[in-house]
Amino acid sequence: MKKYLSLTLLLLFFVMGAAAQESHNYVMKIQKKDTLLSIPVSQIDSIYFEEQAPQGSLTFDINVSNITAGDAKIVITPSNDESTYYYSITDSIGRDNRDNNYNGSWYEMEVGWWTYLSQFYSMTWQEVMQKFLVTGQHTANIEEDYGGRLMWDTPYYVYCFGVDNEGNLTSDIVEKLFRTTKPVPSDNEITVTLKQELSDGVLIDVATTNDDTYFIDCQKKSYVDYYLDEYDGSKEQMFYRFFSSIRTQINDQYFHNGDQTDLKAKALTPDADYYIIICGFNDGPTTDIQLIPFHTAAQ
């Protein structure tokens, strides 16, 4: 006579069987109608139960267009304008976090984030979640939804899922992968002349051959050299890493056009080795990346 176990007893049996598999050859049997599956316990790494969305539920169309090196138009259209849903944008770091810590589930990852936030606001994670839900067709705002400009030549994931106010899934989880383009090169030739080293930076003149935008910043030589070493001397990869770390702080003060006289490139530490980092920029580097060394004056 067959004995049917509850889910709790099934998990208990699995744990006991896994612990004793060295002396017993346990097999987990799973039956669905007339199909019986037999899986040796020694071949099972983990077991868990995942809530499935109801059949015939909310569906989504994610359309990504107008993709450039630093932007894209993302429009999410649900099949039901009244149902609440959640969406987000992330890069490969977010995807790896999902895969490594949340069983490959965007939903589980977001519940973890909402749960983390809830402890700071004396709210349940469901109450936190409700503040992020939307309805109807939605056009993403890259700056707000991603937290800053997109990086050039980079894969991104847009994902969404229906969820009610209690946190229950009401749809399958849908994702869309897209990649930003490479920046369009500029023929601008940029020449920098050091004029005066200061304790908090350096005065420079910049000469250009056209009015294309360029980026300028100062960073400690030790910081830049560390990433140059990590990337086998690649200035392009070093700059990508550096720019991605400051992308949420970027504002107009980093960008200039045309010739500049007595421009102050700011540094933080006196009597220290620095680089001026300068290159053409249009949603990414458009010219060679120049690293110009200087030493800040002592106070």
Please outline what is shown here.
The chain is an alpha+beta fold. Helix content is 24%, strand content 31%. It is elongated.
List the helices and strands and how they pair.
Layout: H1 7-19, E1 27-32, E2 35-40, E3 60-65, E4 73-78, E5 85-90, H2 92-101, H3 106-121, H4 125-130, E6 138-139, H5 142-146, E7 155-162, E8 174-179, E9 191-198, E10 201-207, E11 213-220, H6 221-230, H7 235-246, E12 255-257, E13 260-266, E14 273-280, E15 290-295
Antiparallel strand pairs: 1-2, 3-4, 4-6, 5-7, 7-8, 9-10, 10-13, 11-12, 11-14, 14-15
Helix pairs in contact: 6-7
Number of strands: 15
Fraction in helix: 10-25%
Strand arrangement in the largest pleated sheet:
12-11-14-15
Give the number of helices: 7
Distance between the termini: 89 Å
User: What summary fits the major beta sheet?
Assistant: 4 strands, antiparallel
Task: Outline the low-pLDDT stretches.
Answer: 1-16
Q: Indicate the proportion of strand residues.
A: 25-35%
Q: Which radius of gyration do the C-alpha atoms yield?
A: 27 Å
Return the string of H and E elements.
Answer: HEEEEEHHHEHEEEEEHHEEEE
**Structural class from helices and strands?**
alpha+beta
Q: What is the averaged pLDDT score?
A: 88
Shape summary: elongated
